Amino acid sequence: MPAIGSRQVSARTLTVLGVVIALVAAGAFFGIRWWNDYKRVSQASVEDCRTAVRIIEEGKALGPDPAEAERWQEQTGELRKGMEDGYLGYRIAVYEGWAVAVATGNPDRVDRAGIAESMAAAREHCEDARVDLPFPAAA
What we know:
Elements (H helix, E strand, L loop, with lengths): L2 E2 L2 E2 L2 H29 L6 H15 L5 H16 L4 H19 L7 H14 L14
Antiparallel strand pairs: 1-2
Helix pairs in contact: 2-3, 2-4, 3-4, 4-5
């Protein structure tokens, strides 16, 4: 019989202690895993991410004409309404506003840190879909 300090401990007690430790460890493992999934951003479908890529590519090609930029923003707004992941849609809407401001030379464009954060968050939404969002460098 094993001894802890000056007390004798039965094999049954050690077995119960081992099971309790294993259960606590398993609970901690699955709890941490659940928490990480809970805190993770929503994952968009491949279709939503491809729609985002299309909008990004069109935004890169925008010309300086404000009327053209406004039409483009209306068209992409309709595309975004078809997206299932509204969080990704919001991030793409932020990009659209920035792309229009940059293309038309609007001085009231989104700040550099804000657009960079929004682009990074949009990329996170498309991780599981394995679609890379080809954002331009935030200027």
